[in-house]
Amino acid sequence: MQNRVTRLFQIKYPIIQAGMVWTAGWRLASAVSQAGGLGLIGSGSMYPEILREHIRRAKAATTAPFGVNLPLVYPDPESHIRIILEEGIRIVFTSAGNPATWTPLLTAHGVTVAHVVSSARFAQKAEAAGCSLVVAEGFEAGGHNGREETTTFCLVPLVKRSVKIPVVAAGGISGGRAMMAALALGAEGVQVGTRFVASEEASCDPRFKQAVLDASEGDTQLSLKKLMPVRLMKNRFYEKVLDAESRCAGKEELAQLLGKGRAKRGMFEGDLQDGELEIGQVSALITDLKPARIIMEDLWQEFTAMRREIEGWEIR
Amino acid sequence: MQNRVTRLFQIKYPIIQAGMVWTAGWRLASAVSQAGGLGLIGSGSMYPEILREHIRRAKAATTAPFGVNLPLVYPDPESHIRIILEEGIRIVFTSAGNPATWTPLLTAHGVTVAHVVSSARFAQKAEAAGCSLVVAEGFEAGGHNGREETTTFCLVPLVKRSVKIPVVAAGGISGGRAMMAALALGAEGVQVGTRFVASEEASCDPRFKQAVLDASEGDTQLSLKKLMPVRLMKNRFYEKVLDAESRCAGKEELAQLLGKGRAKRGMFEGDLQDGELEIGQVSALITDLKPARIIMEDLWQEFTAMRREIEGWEIR
After folding, report:
1. What's the sign of the alpha-carbon dihedral B287, B290, B292, B296?
2. Whole-model pTM above 0.90?
């Protein structure tokens, strides 16, 4: 399928693997790119030199295009950007920050920049800053999220009508039927996160992967809204946050409760009770651990089967 | 388009107009049914004898099938049910309560019962209670909503895989592209609420309709979670609730703040500042007031155009 997204990144399928912290290392990114999608290395949980190593390993594993996800909220994006430019990365997805700050530098070096947004307003800012694409990430997505809580169903059309650059949908998408839904709403591609957490190549702890497979409806919640809203799997840490919030705890108390390194503890070290487990609502639909290549194949097969089903509808 | 939903209700299009309080009277319901959808009279804001009048007027206005929405949380559903049976209503959509209590009585009288759910668990209960259809209503929908906050994108597939009866999607659907998305996710029809608030036939106050047309992204929020979660348009009343909640107000204080008759005051009497305005996130996408018949026609036209677009995609 050729469209603006596949042409922009020179990929076979308009399917992007989200650059998730503690999960999207070189193994996952290169496997997705090798399978015809766009793999992204999640630099948000990497020291600069670790990022360099992941980039080099991904290059060794595939000649297909891949990119790096760069959260702009961390104190020092510059050293990551230096590595990205030194290593000749051509595709960067930025998120959680102002795209106007770093996009011009990146594009001046020939990098194609996409930005993840939770509103049409931010999408317009990204377009104005020189981004080539926006990812419209709905309320149901895992990890950090917008305060307006706009869902994928409403966000994609809102973003679509606000910008000229292509829109990729994220949040709630684990299979080909959801991909068809996203494209019907106006997206030209999908970004898939949670589904790839439950992949063989994901670098997170196997216990976290198992928790994703075990998750049922209602097992995630947008949390820590006074700090920075984040969708978490419910566990002991989440219950502590909930308890503090129900006592009207302030920002300081919540920040102290969160502490440092809790995401690593949960997702990378597999502490399912006291770690922070960032995951999407769609985890309730995922029941099997698969290699990234099979995830891609199944997703594409379900998408084309859905298309044939639509073609078969008798409509007068 | 013929499928289980159109056959169940003997309608032309699998499009159901939500039976919204203070908004869905006989004029709206009969106009939607006359245009080939399924109109629902919203009995939740009607005294029994008012409901009888609306049913009789709808019967006089159309020979097409229409139904009644019946919220099961109000103190006295029995008198409404008596009217429904006396007037020979054949289709009832129940919501916000236990479907096991009243479904057997209704089906024993030959009524087809559908139930609105916010989770797969409730959908299974509805199926077990004898309902013929479930409406899977996502977090983005207006009015009362589930505590699990599952969005349409995630809820529809979750419900679909849990029941055998047909699933209708609600929440975030105002046009034909969203209808295609809902059907791709596994729904066999859509329930449309917010779009019909901005219709000529809606019985709510014109000022409320104008507020829906004026709404932008982020202008609604799921609120009053300690009582019963409800998606509201942000206004002075909402700000008061937010302020009370930020002070950790208890149920009693919130119930007192809500008081009685606030929904009527907002939606029916047009008090945009101190009334309760129940509306969906998709209000941000709606910009024109139209007759219900034109809403139906435009929705169907957009849906079939989207289908042709999908058929035209070059996929190898």
Report:
1. negative
2. yes
